[in-house]
Design goal:
Strand order of the largest sheet: 7-6-19-16-9-10
Strand content: 25-35%
Number of strands: 20
Low-confidence stretches: none
CATH architecture of the largest domain: Sandwich
CATH topology of the largest domain: Tumour Suppressor Smad4
Shape: globular
Largest sheet: 6 strands, antiparallel
Mean pLDDT: 92
Order of helices and strands: EHEHEHEHHEEEEHHHEEEEEEHEEEEEE
Number of helices: 9
Radius of gyration: 18 Å
Length: 289
């Protein structure tokens, strides 16, 4: 079993990995551990593993690591395993994956899968696969400027603190986009494959990660007051129903216009608009237990 580990997860989360590995080894499963050293390295390691005939590659890290490994597996029959070590672990919650070390090890050993159909964002900086969501606007600005040390120390709370910092100067420029050819605009946009956002919080109830297409959540109200209202609604699972929030199903999303808005994908910075978002060419089998 090949495990791609992101050491940026920190020592506390690394200890969870060692506990999973102890269970796997104790049950006679041979482990090959590969550490990432730079952005994009997890994708390269997964692609190399597939070329060597690996039937399963395990992503040990957060949603960004999972997305990179998934990109390396795309187009192959290899299964994607997950050891959730991130700050939010949205994909793990979305797919109802286990978190307790013995349960994680058992799921990886058993190998039952569910399909996950990723999205692909294409822009001036190239293409990028995402497995849970892509954001354009304020949340992307937060991700782009969030200090990695703050994220390691505070976990998900770091995002709330960074949001308060960003509100002092973020411009809330209108974001223009086309949804299956129909033009609209919003203050912020989240293109979601799954129902959840920021952890276990419900955002897009109609989303289905195993099927093509996206749930596009458009936030029409701009300004600090609206952002604080949306932030307060998130932990109450009311964000998807807050005032000024629209939900649209779409297969192709084109972010247009001259305004260069920040973009984040699965919690990692992904450049700036303009970009186009479409389905990946195929689904990926994710090991769920």
């Amino acid at each position: 079993m090949i495990i791609v580990f992101n050491p940026v997860a920190g020592m506390r989360r690394a200890s969870l990995l060692w506990r999973v590995l102890d269970v796997l080894v104790a049950n006679g499963i041979r482990i090959e551990l590969a550490e990432t050293h730079r952005p994009g390295h997890a994708e390269a390691l997964a692609r190399e593993a597939v070329c060597r005939g690996a039937s399963m590659v395990v992503a040990a890290g957060g949603d960004g690591t999972i997305a990179e490994v998934a990109n390396g597996l795309l187009g192959s029959p290899a299964r994607l395993g997950v050891i959730p070590l991130g700050s939010a672990n949205v994909v793990a919650h979305e797919m109802s994956l286990p978190f307790e070390p013995r349960a994680v090890a058992a799921a990886l050993a058993f190998g039952r899968t569910r399909p996950l159909w990723p999205g692909v964002a294409r822009g001036a900086e190239g293409s990028r696969l995402f497995v849970q969501m892509l954001g354009v606007g304020l949340d992307a600005q937060v991700v782009q400027n969030l200090p990695i040390v703050l994220k390691r120390v505070l976990g998900r709370s770091a995002y709330a603190l960074q949001t308060l910092r960003e509100l002092t100067f973020y411009r809330f420029a209108p974001i223009r986009l086309r949804l299956d050819g129909e033009e609209t605009q919003a203050a912020s946009v989240i293109v979601s494959k799954g129902r959840l956002y920021g952890g276990r919080f419900l955002l897009a109830p109609a989303a289905c990660p195993s099927e093509p297409g996206f749930s596009v959540v458009l936030f029409d109200h701009s300004g600090s007051a609206a952002a604080l209202l949306y932030g307060a609604a998130l932990p109450l699972n009311l964000l998807g129903r807050a005032p000024g929030v629209r939900h649209v199903r779409a297969r192709q999303i084109d972010f247009i216009g001259n305004e260069l808005s920040p973009v984040q994908a699965d919690g990692d910075s992904a450049g700036r608009t303009p970009i186009s978002v479409t389905d990946a060419p195929a689904s990926i089998p994710v090991v769920v237990g």
